[in-house]
């Protein structure tokens, strides 16, 4: 499989915008996906200084050969008004991380942080519908995942976050969009949950412990963690020790790449279909 | 030799701006040069709609990971004010086709259309100093070549162009910068020339003839043609039939790539030095 692209004058451009940018993986990941799908396109990193965001973004979107943008820290919320059309997740949580140019030149944006988690779970054959979820973290990742889980039909989401105001804001935002899903602030694990998700930064440092007071888990509990690290996080280790199945940060990331690729290039063949490469 | 680049978040960007853009060759040519020189950089095409030029260019230059710009039709003159510092050729003819970001964040621009011709001639071992030149075409290419030839020490340049006003403007512009070089409007070949250059579009169409009334050429006449076509232009065929040595559009293009690469990445190894690839 090739991980390189031949760039010509006719090659279509995609860019990921962020500040800083050198750490992003999307250029490698999506440029390879384009190559596998036989699409003459490259995704390049674009380091947009935060103070220049409002004039640089419209200029990038004016490039006639730029067909899509990915958005990373710290721009996911600031990008929202630059889309002429928003998907449900983006509307619900007020942020976008991918935009595509439509045939008429307008731009559609949506947020795939949560869709990536759901796709990652589905890729592993996990059922989400009806789950009773305890989630740690109501920031950007937590908001996106809560929205995607509600859309996927979970029964309830209890949200743990030391910042009570952002829990309340998230509960209010999701309540209107998904009235069937029970949403509430939570403080600790109760007996009524069968899914635990860490959407907080706890676990990013090697000596981090669990994101909260979780205790023993029944083996039918599905455990998810957004944190991507070399070795499993304390939460994932705890889940495995309790015989639970897991959705890791890597599963979520792979799911998100699938979801974004489908969004950027509707109809592109899925990853792995070009198995001869 | 690789003609592909692996693009990561840390890859440095260069872009060529033009309208249209799909026809440009620079992305392939320079991305390969970067790879050969072991520089983690890619040159991408950027289709800047002409009516958006003035706001898109400053935005591109604000990207923290963009280290250089190439400029093609129709922007070479419009780009001039965006450089904070100009090379001699750019100042002389009022246009730039390459800019690089300096360590202090400022931008230096210069024009290499003429330097490419001179480098192409040097690459073939041709002497330019002291030549008495007859040149057809006083547009962008002709202006740049006249400037570079004057700088290279030719004795005289007679310029043929149906637009007398632009011949006069070019003669005036070069006269101040290169008082040693005899510059004048010309109408046809005289006995006193030993170099003929076509810098007009004549020859781009398959049925084009010679750019002017040239007649037989002594074999010590050096003949140049900016036109790049699949088969030799009528002028190059005429030169070869007269036993003259030639600088073709391809020679000029290769020379320009060398000159621009030196400018964009001072100290980068020359092409071909990585002969093991």
Describe this entry's structure for a reader.
The structure is a homodimer of 277-residue chains. By secondary structure, chain A is α/β, with parallel strands linked by helices. Chain A folds into 2 domains: 12-111, 3-Layer(aba) Sandwich (Rossmann fold), CATH 3.40.50.10860; 114-252, NAD(P)-binding Rossmann-like Domain (Rossmann fold, 3-Layer(aba) Sandwich), CATH 3.40.50.720. The first copy, chain A, is 32% helix and 20% strand. Chain A is built from 8 helices and 12 strands. In chain A, the strands form 2 sheets. A 6-stranded mixed beta sheet of chain A has the order 2-1-3-5-6-4, with helices on both faces. Chain A has a 6-stranded parallel beta sheet with strand order 9-8-7-10-11-12, sandwiched between helices. In chain A, a hairpin with a 5-residue loop joins strand 5 (98-101) and strand 6 (107-110). In chain A, helix 4 (113-123) crosses helix 5 (140-151) and helix 4 (113-123) packs across helix 8. The longest helix of chain A is centred in the C-terminal third of the chain and has 16 residues, at 249-264. Chain A is globular, with a radius of gyration of 19 Å. The mean pLDDT of chain A is 92. The interface between A and B is large, with 41 and 41 residues.
């Amino acid at each position: 499989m090739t991980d390189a692209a031949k760039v010509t004058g006719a090659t279509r451009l995609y860019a990921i915008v962020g500040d800083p940018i050198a750490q992003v993986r999307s250029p490698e990941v999506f440029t390879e996906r384009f190559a596998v799908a036989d699409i003459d396109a490259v995704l390049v990193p674009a380091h947009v200084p935060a103070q220049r965001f409002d004039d640089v973004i419209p200029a990038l979107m004016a490039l006639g050969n730029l067909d899509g943008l990915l958005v990373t820290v710290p721009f996911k919320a600031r990008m929202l008004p630059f889309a002429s059309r928003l998907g449900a997740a983006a509307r619900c949580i007020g942020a976008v991380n991918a935009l595509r140019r439509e045939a008429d030149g307008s731009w559609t944006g949506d947020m795939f942080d949560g869709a990536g988690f759901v796709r990652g779970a589905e890729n592993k054959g996990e059922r989400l519908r009806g789950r009773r979820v305890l989630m740690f973290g109501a920031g950007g990742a937590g908001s996106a995942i809560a929205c995607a889980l509600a859309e996927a039909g979970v029964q309830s989401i209890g949200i743990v976050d030391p910042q009570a105001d952002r829990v309340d804001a998230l509960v209010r935002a999701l309540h209107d969009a998904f009235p069937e899903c029970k949403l509430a602030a939570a403080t600790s694990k109760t007996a009524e949950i069968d899914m635990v998700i860490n959407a907080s930064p706890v676990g990013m440092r090697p000596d981090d412990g669990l994101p909260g007071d979780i205790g023993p888990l029944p083996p039918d509990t599905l455990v998810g963690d957004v944190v991507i690290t070399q070795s499993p996080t304390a939460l994932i280790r705890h889940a495995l020790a309790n015989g639970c199945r897991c959705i890791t940060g890597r599963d979520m990331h792979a799911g998100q790449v699938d979801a974004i690729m489908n969004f950027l290039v509707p109809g592109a063949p899925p990853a792995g279909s070009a198995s001869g490469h």
